[in-house]
Design goal:
The chain has 719 residues and is α+β, with helices and mostly antiparallel strands. Helix 3 runs parallel beside helix 9, helix 12 packs antiparallel against helix 13 and helix 15 packs antiparallel against helix 16. It is built from 16 helices and 27 strands. It is 30% helix and 25% strand. The termini are far apart. It is elongated. A 5-stranded antiparallel β-sheet has the order 2-1-5-4-3, sandwiched between helices. A 5-stranded antiparallel β-sheet has the order 7-6-12-11-10, sandwiched between helices.
Length: 719
């Protein structure tokens, strides 16, 4: 050995080097004697230099590096590492093929910065004579107080390489990473490796047998990482249509996918037939031979997912045994590519559903911004968190946040169903607590294997919080099913979570159920409301109250003039746990409301003269607002009919409210009755129900919402 390792028994270098005794004969710790190591005339190594079990087992070595990635210690005494020039003080990257230097350097720097080991990378090392050795390389941080890295290398037999490559390729469900892992493994057989996938595979679509003339290939992986000639197809680019068709035809013989080898540059140019295609497919002047191996999905008939290409220099022709190894590796890993394709399709569907449910606009009385970050970038990490904000037909705004149990397509589908149901029920005029009652029943039904989810997924325990903002009274009506409390920041800066009565999640056991409550809070114009899911504030290292407190302080720091989208992203960046275990969701809503001069409210006794009194009050206000005569006549007739119906069919005081909102006028008449007005087919001589027909003809839309004391009939007239 060229140098003595540090004395610390806990160093990574010592731990790796201690294992070398199993592979290196006793007495070699100080390095072999050059004189005693002379081979006999037949070229065989001296007998005493070989362990009893044979030299093929001497496969483990170790190299220590400083922070500048220079060799400080080494243990490469096994015969298999002969020719690796790892002199003390030399850069470790001198052992690498030139094209691998950027990638490996990034890995080494990453381990130095993070302290997290990088294990079992299939890597080529250059010998002094120009040949290469395939190893499994692991990068370990040096143990304190030592600095730097320990790089362990295991010389890989060809069969071991096949096993290790298949294991590495199957670790990701991302189609790009899967293709990249396959290309890196194939590099052991050549100088350049590329994976070209059918475009349908790349996008996650279903792959079927298709006409060869329509095939479209996209470059999904390319190694090593280096500068490529002009015109060469690089990562993420589509192959020219002629090249895609030629490759598809080349790998199909007798209507079955087969591997082919084009042995030299002359044959390649003859097959491609065009200088443009040569520039697109041949990685460089030194690349003279290529093996094309199809990625085949077994079936009847088999379906080709793409093509793996391995390029070599002219002085290294492919042997039959190497082609067999290439075919075996690609065959073993084709199903991983198809699994990644299926995952890509699910991922696309889940994200499309998430984007569909993102808030658009809260209307002119509320400004909103939202942030959603899944646990992981794949669909396995995309869960059932959702936020939504939408204006209700009667001028109010609904703000909803929910967290469905689980991740993946099942959770996303349930989330979509609950979100759409909540929106429909709120738009129909139901109060937040009534909406939660319906959602509770829905979750219970979905958990019934006979009528819903028989696939092993359960949404029991999902949470939801609904807030409805009235821009006239500046009040929030809020109901929650097991969800964390929203945070309200008043215009004067006073901030804190809203005090709401805790309630079990959706679908709780019957014994735990209790009526959902409605909590009402004053939210003056300029207030800021934050709705969120637990992934934003839950940290295993701190209590949940501390996480909510951090979020409260971050939301309170948002300036009234700050743009909400940037403010929402800043809040998430400040509060989000470093090691989060769940999706992160945040909805910020700046509550503005109507200006005081755009609304008017009157309370009238339920007497026969109520309609005439309401017409007089409304007429005076419409003249003040300078409303057109035609609109004023329609509004007066509308108010008269609604008030008359309230006096006739309900009781108690009547509330009349008029709102000037954008291009329309919103008229509301509230009473203490609980009957639902219905628009039916009135006969020619019928007196009953004609008022609602008048309302229907005069307005662009109308509806009913329920209150704690009765109901409100609202209608909108275009000005």
């Amino acid at each position: 050995m060229d140098s003595t390792p540090p004395s610390s028994s806990s160093s990574s270098f010592n731990l790796v080097s201690s294992a070398l005794g199993r592979y290196i004969p006793r007495g070699q710790a100080a390095g072999p004697d050059p004189a005693a190591s002379q081979a006999d005339p037949a070229g065989n190594p001296p007998e005493h230099d070989l362990p009893a079990t044979g030299p093929q087992e001497q496969i483990l070595g170790a190299v220590n590096l400083d922070r500048e990635l220079r060799v400080t210690h080494r243990n490469l005494d096994a015969p298999v590492f002969a020719g690796l020039d790892a002199a003390i003080g030399s850069p470790f990257v001198d052992l690498l093929p030139q094209g691998d230097v950027p990638t490996v350097t990034r890995r080494l720097r990453q381990v130095l910065e993070t302290g997290e080991a990088h294990v079992a990378r299939v890597q080529r090392l250059r010998r002094a004579d120009g040949s290469e050795l395939v190893v499994s390389m692991s990068i370990l941080p040096a143990a304190a107080p030592q600095e730097g890295l320990t790089v362990s290398v295991i010389a890989m037999a060809r069969r071991l390489h096949l096993y290790a490559a298949e294991t590495a390729i199957g670790t990701s469900l991302d189609i790009g990473e899967t293709a990249q892992s396959l290309a890196e493994s194939l590099l052991a057989w050549g100088d350049v490796a590329a994976i070209d996938l059918d475009f349908a595979v790349w996008t996650g679509e279903g792959v079927t047998e298709r006409a060869q003339g329509r095939i479209r290939l996209r470059r999904a992986a390319l190694v090593p990482d280096r500068a490529w000639p002009e015109g060469y197809v690089t990562l993420g680019e589509d192959l020219p249509s002629d090249a895609s068709r030629l490759l598809a035809q080349a790998i199909r013989r007798a209507d079955a996918p087969q591997s082919i080898v084009i042995p030299d540059r002359e044959a390649i140019e003859r097959v491609l037939g065009s200088p443009r295609l040569v520039r697109a497919l041949v990685p460089g002047e030194r690349s003279a031979g290529v093996a094309c191996v199809p990625l085949v999905l077994e079936g009847d008939p088999p379906v080709v997912l793409g093509v793996a290409e391995v390029w070599r220099r002219a002085d290294r022709p492919f042997a039959d045994s190497e082609l067999f190894d290439l075919q075996e590796l690609v065959a073993r890993t084709s199903h991983h590519v198809d699994l990644a394709r299926q995952h890509q399709r699910e991922h696309t569907q889940v994200l499309a559903l998430q984007r569909r449910l993102l808030p658009r606009s809260g209307g002119g009385t509320v400004q909103t911004a939202s942030v959603y970050q899944p646990t992981t970038p794949d669909s396995a990490g995309v869960g059932g968190d959702w936020v939504n904000s939408f204006p209700l037909p009667d001028g109010r705004t609904a703000l909803v946040v929910g967290d469905v149990v689980g991740h993946g397509l099942g959770a996303a589908a349930t989330m979509g169903q609950l979100s759409m149901e909540a929106r429909a029920l709120l738009s129909a005029g139901l109060a937040p607590d009534e909406v939660l009652e319906h959602l509770d029943e829905t979750v219970t039904l979905l958990d019934d294997a006979e009528s819903g989810l028989a696939a092993g997924y359960s949404a029991l325990g999902s949470t939801c919080c609904i807030a409805v903002y009235d821009p006239v009274s500046h009040r929030l009506a809020l109901s929650s099913a097991g969800h964390l409390p929203p945070i309200l920041v008043a215009p004067d800066g006073d901030a804190g979570p809203l005090a709401i009565h805790p309630h079990p999640g959706l679908g709780a056991e019957f014994a735990l159920r209790e009526p959902f409550g409605v909590h009402t809070f004053v939210a003056p114009p300029g207030s800021l409301l934050a709705l969120y899911t637990d992934g934003l504030v839950e940290d295993p290292a701190v209590p949940i109250d501390e996480g909510i407190g951090r979020l409260t302080r971050a939301v309170a720091a948002v300036h009234p003039w700050d743009a909400l989208p940037q403010a929402a992203r800043r809040v998430v960046a400040e509060v989000m746990p470093e090691r989060r275990r769940d999706d992160v969701t945040l909805l910020l809503a700046r509550l503005i409301g109507y200006r005081k001069g755009d609304t008017a409210t009157w309370r009238l006794p339920a007497r026969e003269d109520a309609a005439a009194r309401a017409r007089a009050l409304v007429s005076a206000l419409l003249r003040q607002w300078r409303t057109r005569d035609g609109t004023r006549d329609s509004v007066l007739l509308l108010v008269s009919e609604l008030v008359t119906n309230a006096v006739r069919h309900a009781g108690g005081p009547i509330t009349v409210r008029l709102i000037r909102a954008g291009p329309g006028l919103l008229c509301e008449v509230g009473d203490t009755g609980n009957g639902r007005p219905r628009l039916g087919r009135a006969g020619l001589l019928d007196d009953g129900g004609r008022g609602l027909h008048v309302v229907h003809r005069l307005t662009s839309r109308w509806g009913v919402r329920w209150t704690e004391t009765g109901k409100v009939v609202w209608a909108e007239v275009v000005r």
